[in-house]
Fold:
Amino acid sequence: MTTDSKRPRALITGASSGIGAEFARQLGRQGYDLVLVARRKDAMDALAAQIPNVDVEVVPADLVSDAGVAAVAGRLEAGDIDLLVNNAGYGTFGEFAKLPLDRELAELDLNVRALMRLSHAAATVMLERKRGAIINVASTAAFQAVPHNATYAATKAFVLHFSEALHEELKPHGVTVTCLCPGPVKTEFQEVAGLDAGGVPSIAWTSVDHVVRAAIAAMRSGRAITVPGAVNMATAASSKLTPRFLTRKIAGAMFRDRGDSS
Structure:
């Protein structure tokens, strides 16, 4: 690994697998030095070994905890991060009243509070430098309420609206904020969430490679939102035209009996 101060540097949360790991691979190929953040140091070390010719820094941190978020915020405040990818997050599936409350609250802490705190740390420095970019990972679940996936969809709606607002605030100062809203992507997400993904039509799935390429392209072109995949784009667009009572009934029917509420 080599260090070149002229290269841009990206900090990626949730970088040990899935979309976060793919961001690391693609940004590394594009010449970014990397700061990888996740709980699993061994997985990040293995990923770092696969990314040649860039400097890779591994920061083990649990972003549900105040200490973990503070450590990563401090790393952002060092002032050498050109791109923040807020990817860390998880979902829960099942009837809200039957799910463990502590896990729902931790989901809120990770998907919302950590993302907000890290966005603030990055934006403060980027405003001073008058350049930089933030990619916040939401979901197509952000576009409507989703019974049996209530907390996750609500957190991602926050991410979408928050990102759109930041996009408008920071754009005049040379800082780009892009919200990535993927549909179903085959990663560890489904296993962690306890979701039976067998009922999702094959046409709805988008590859992790395509999702990340779309996000980077949207960031480079200064777009506020990107929804990778034609089916997902159509679904997001239709949610704006369909009455809310109907969208939530359809969404709830899709996830009913597919979650594990034990």
